[in-house]
Amino acid sequence: MELQDLLDKFGKYSKQKPVLLKKAYEFSQKAHLNQKRFSGEMYFTHCQAVSDILLDFKMDMQTVAAGLLHDVIEDTPITHEEFKEEFGEEVYNLVIGVTKIAALKFSSHSDAQAENWRKMLLATARDIRVIIIKLADRIHNMSTLNYMPKEKQIEISHETLSLYAPLSQRLGMFNIKSQLEDLSFKYLFPDEYKSLAAKVQIRYTKREKLLEEFKHDLEEHLAETQIAYRVLSRAKNLYSIYRKMMKQNLPFEDIEDALGIRLITDSVASCYALMGIVHSIFKPVTGSFTDYIAVPKMNLYQSLHTTVMAPSGEFVEIQIRTEEMNKTSEYGIAAHWRYKMGDRAKDAHLNEKLDWLKQWIEWLQDISSPREFIESFKTDLELDQIFIFTPTGEVKALPVGATPLDFAYAIHSDIGNTCIGAKVNNKMLRLDQNLKSGDVCEIITRKKSIPKKDWIAFVKTARARSHIKRFLRENGTLGK
Ligand code: MN
To answer: Which one of the listed residues 56, 74, 192, 317 is annotated catalytic?
Structure first.
C-alpha cells in the first residue's frame, strides 16, 4: 500500500492531520531498506500490510503509526532513545509492547498453560492496542507462511491456534479468529484441510441454489416495507466444522450445518421489525430465537438469531443486526477502541485507563470464576504481577516482590515445605530475594527438610504464609 493510499484510507474515518503517519511510513521504509522477507519481498511490505489491516479496524493514528514501526526496534539498529525522540512516548510504548510480546517464547501445549499465557500476554501488553497490532502482525505473517521453512510453519501455526485465535475470540474479533484458525488448520493438518475444503465446496455449490431461492422469497416480502437492509451470506470457518467433527466423532456428511444468512439493517427497531416479518413468512423452529440485542454477550456481541424452515424443507439460520453490531462482531474490541477522532478528551490517560478497566472486566468475566476474577482484578489491573517460569516452561503468576519460596509454594506445598534453595536463571538466589518477571526458577528440595520460622517474615503470598504456619503449628514448632 503506497503512502497516498494509506493516508486516503485513514482520511475516510478520521479528521486528524496525518503528519505522524507520513513520518512513520518514511521512517520505517528507510529503516528496513536492506531487509527482505522469506518471500524475497522487501521487509517493508510487511509493515505496510500490518498498517493496512489496522486501517481496516479504523484504529487511531498512533496505533497505525506503531503498526508501520512495529519491527523497527527489534530488527533495525535504531535505538530506544532515537525512537522516542522521533515518535514520542505513546507510539514508543505501543511498539515496545509488541516487541515484548514477540520475545515471549510460547512452549507449553496444555490448555491450562495456554490460559496463563494469554493472561501474561495481556498483562505484558498493558494497552489493548498492543494486542490489536500483534493480531494484525500475526494475520499477515500467517497469510505469508508458505514461504517459511516447514518446522517454522508448524510452530507458528500451533502458537496461533492455541494462543492468538482464542485471544481474538475473547476480544470479540470473530473475523480474525476464523481467519487465524483456518490458516493454522491448513498448516497443521494439510490433508484434513484439503479434503474438508473440497467437501464444503461441493456442499455449498449445491446449497447455493436453495439459498438464492430463499433470499428471493424473503426479498419479495420485504419489498413492500420501507426497511433498509442488505443480505450477507455467512463465511465458513473450516476449522470450526473440523472441531465439531472431532468432538462428535462424526464424518463431515453427518455434521448438521444449517444454511445461514445475515440481514444487516439501520436501527434496532428495524431489527425487530425484520424479525417479525421473517417469522410471519417462514415457520420458526421452536426455541431457536435468541435475543442478543437485549442481552449482549460478554464480548459485546449483539444480534438477533432465529432458525426457520424454508419452503424447500431446509433449516435456515438467520442473524439480524445493525451495521454497527456487524462491525462489532467482526472487529470486537477494536470497534470500541476508538478515540474521538480529532478531539481527544483532556485527560486522555484517564480515558484510556477507564476503557482498559472496562475491557478487563469484560474479558475476565468471560473466563474466570468470581473469586479468581476479583483476585485478577486486584492484581492484574494494578499491573503488579510478575510471571515466573518453571524449568519446563510452565508459568506462574505471582505478586511483585515474590520470593523463590512463594514460587515453591505456588507449585506445591510439599515443594515449599522441603525447599532448601533456588536456582534462578541458573544462578543460586537467596530465598528472601525478589524474583523478576521472566525469571526461570528451579527449586531445590531435600526430603526431610522443614520450613523455618523466619520464612513467615519475608514471603509475599498468603498461600506460602499459611502453609508455613500450618506446618509449624502441626509440628509444634510455632511460637517456640
Ligand atoms: Mn512483524
So the answer is: 74
Whether 74 sits among the annotated catalytic residues: the reply is yes
Residue 55 falls inside a structural domain: yes
Q: What is the pTM of this model?
A: 0.68
Specify which residues 152 forms β-bridges with. Answer: none
In the structure, what pLDDT confidence band is assigned to residue 352 with cuts at 50, 70 and 90?
very low
- CA 198: distance to chain centroid? 29
Structural domain that includes position 138: 3-173
Query: What average pLDDT does the segment 8-16 reach?
Result: 91
| Set of cell numbers at residue 41 | 519481498
CA of 31 to the centre of ligand 1 (A): 14
Choose the catalytic residue: 60, 71, 75, 394: 75
Same domain, 318 and 251: yes
Residues 110 and 237 in one domain: no
Q: Read off the CATH number of the domain in which 200 is found.
A: 3.30.460.10
- Give a yes or no: residue 78 inside a domain: yes
160 touches 106 (CB < 8 A)? no
Burial of 287 (0-12, 13-18, 19+ CB in 10 A): exposed
- Please report, for the domain that includes residue 403, its CATH number: 3.10.20.30
Distance from the alpha carbon of residue 47 to the mean position of ligand 1, in angstroms = 7
Q: Is 75 labeled as catalytic in the residue annotation?
A: yes
Q: Do 397 and 266 reside in the same domain of the chain?
A: no
Residues surrounding ion ligand 1 at CB below 5 Å: 71, 137
Measured in angstroms, how far is the CA atom of residue 396 from the centroid of ligand 1?
28
Please give the distance, rounded to the nearest whole angstrom, from the Cα atom of residue 356 to the centre of ligand 1.
24
Q: How many domains does the chain have?
A: 3
Q: Percent of the chain scored above 90 by pLDDT?
A: 44
pLDDT, residue 156, reads: 92
Using CA atoms, how far apart are residues 407 and 434, in angstroms rounded to an integer? 11
| More confident site: 430 or 117 | 430
